[in-house]
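Anyone up for a design puzzle?
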């Protein structure tokens, strides 16, 4: 978990992990995905976040999005 300059929070991965994940997904879907911008000045809030299953990941992403939307509204 990382927080950027505007206090919004995101799930983040190291560049080498991102490349590996991206390549695996592209291989499975047989398409090229767009690049994601690298963020260098993020404050690490939590070094590791794990999920029990895909639903817990989706629930967490929704919560994160809702919290970020509240920050943006303020």
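Challenge accepted. My sequence:
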């Amino acid at each position: 978990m990382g927080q950027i300059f505007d206090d919004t929070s995101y799930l983040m991965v190291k560049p080498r992990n991102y490349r590996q994940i991206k390549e695996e997904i592209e291989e499975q879907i047989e398409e090229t995905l767009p690049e994601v911008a690298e963020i260098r000045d993020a404050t690490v809030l939590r070094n590791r976040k794990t999920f029990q299953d895909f639903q817990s990941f989706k629930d967490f992403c929704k919560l994160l999005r809702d919290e970020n939307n509240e920050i943006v509204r303020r």
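A detail worth pointing out: The longest strand covers residues 2-3.
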